[in-house]
Design a protein that fits this description.
Peroxidase, domain 1; Glutaredoxin; 2 domains; ion transport; CF(1); ATP synthesis; ATPase_OSCP/d_CS
């Protein structure tokens, strides 16, 4: 029975996290996997090639060897492990699960800040720091989505929690009170 993408990501992501923890390299692995994820997303053909059943293991290994230079021995071992089990088609999902485990272990939140206009990095960081402090997180990594329909303010979606401080939401509340 084939594993689902989610189950594959969970199993391999957990195994990689445990391996990194046992070797005392969780931060290094996090950093390198994050870098690798960005590279793979910028060049998705990399995963497609290493997942291609037409290429034999030796060809895939030589391609991987060329790419893994500059990464730690631990990450190289992980990449070779994934290659040997033919799991490169799940690479981004596996990395995402590792990041999820790392963030949970280190009390780091992730979320989205929806704003009407794009904030500068400093504004976004101040918002993240404020939220992290209020909710007991060590850090918060926020992505920004611009949504002109919220008119102004910000809608924060963090770890399943939504805080709607948008002008649109406030106007809807006023409208609801007036129509009662």
């Amino acid at each position: 029975m084939a594993l689902s993408r989610e189950e594959t990501a969970r199993r391999y992501g957990t195994a990689i996290f445990d391996f990194a923890k046992d070797s005392g390299k969780t931060e290094l692995m996090y950093s390198e996997l994050t870098e690798l994820k960005k590279a793979v997303q910028a060049e998705p053909r990399f995963v497609q090639v290493l997942s291609n059943p037409v290429l034999d293991a030796k060809q895939k290994k030589s391609l991987l060897t060329a790419v893994e230079q500059g990464f730690s021995a631990e990450l190289q071992e992980v990449l070779n492990f994934l290659l040997s089990y033919d799991r490169f088609d799940n690479l981004v999902d596996i990395i995402d699960y590792y990041i999820h485990l790392y963030n949970a272990a280190n009390h780091i939140g992730t979320g989205v800040a929806k704003t009407a206009l794009k904030p500068d990095e400093d504004q976004l960081q101040r918002l993240a720091d404020s939220y992290a402090k209020k909710y007991g997180l060590q850090a918060l990594h926020l992505e920004n989505e611009v949504d002109p329909e919220i008119i102004g303010g910000v809608v924060l979606e963090v770890e399943g929690r939504v805080i709607d401080g948008s002008v649109k939401h406030r106007l809807e509340k006023i409208r609801a009170m007036l129509t009662k």
